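Dig into my protein:

:::
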Amino acid sequence: MTTTSAPPGARRPAPAGDPRRTIPAARRRPTPASLLSWLMLVPCLVVFALFIIWPLGKSVSLSLHGSDLFGRPDAYVGLQHYRDMLGSPEFRHILWVTFAFVLLTVIPGVLGALFVVLLLEQHIRGIRIFRTAFALPFAFSVASASVIFATIYNPAIGLANGLLGRFGVDRIGWLTDPSWALISVAITTVWMSIGYNVLVLSAGIGAIPTEINEAATLDGAGGFRLSRYITIPLLGPQLFFLIVISTIQSLQGFGQIKILTPEGGPEQSTKTLVYSIYHTAFANNASDFGAASAQAIVLLVILLACTAIQFGVLERRVHYK
C-alpha cells in the first residue's frame, strides 16, 4: 500500500473530529454576542425607519399622485409633477434664486469666519472680548435674528439707512427692492452662521501643535505667510466640514426668508426651493402635496449631488493629521 506525502510546507487538513476544523459560514450559529449587538441596533433602526425611510417613501408616493381639496392622495399621475416642474420657467427662476442664495451665504460665511479667527489669533489686548462678541450670534435663534435685522432694514427708522444717510447715500429698500432683497436675507444668514463657524475654526486652530508654528517661525515664516502656508492648510478638515454643513443649511434655509420677506419677497426675488415647497403645500390654504413632494425630492437630489461633488473635489485637498 502506497501513501502519498504532502509536499514540504503544505498544510494538512484537520481530521473530521478535530476542534480546529472550521464550520462553513452558512452553518454557523449566531453567538450571544452577535445577537446582543443586533438587539442593541434595533432602537436605532426603528427610529431610522420611522423618521427617514417611511417619510421618504411617503414623499415619493405623494409625488406620483395628485391631491384632492384636502391634500389627500388622489389619482396616480406618474411623473407628471416632475415634467410640469422642470418645464416651468418659474421653477427655473426658483432654482436660480436657490443657488444664488447658497453662494451669497456659504462663501462669505466661511471666509468671513476664517478672517475673523485669524485676526483673533493676533496678540491684541482685550482679544477675549472680541472672541465673545463674534461668538454671540450663535446664541440667537432664527426668529430673533430675523426680527432684529427686520428692524435694521426698516426704511424709515432702520440703522442701515441711517448710516447710509450720514455718508450722503440715498436710502435703499433692503427688503422691498428686488435687487436687494436676496442680498439682505443673505447678510442676515451670514451673521447668524458666523458665530458657529468662528467656534469651529477656533477649535481647529487650538488643535494645531505649537511645535509646528514655532518651527515655522524659526524658519522665517510669520504673519501672512504663516497663516497661508501653515494655519490655513492645517484647518482643511474644519473648513471642509463648514463648507458642507453651510451648503446644506443654506439649501434648507426658510425661517429668515419667511420672516424678512413674506410671500417670497418682491417679484419672488427670495423664493428659494424650500420656500416654494412650503408655499405649494401650506401657504394660502394650499394643499397640493403631490407637487410639493416632487419639489422636495428634487431638493433631496440637489443636496446629495452637492455633497457628493464636495466630497469628490474638495476632500482630496484636505490634509488630515
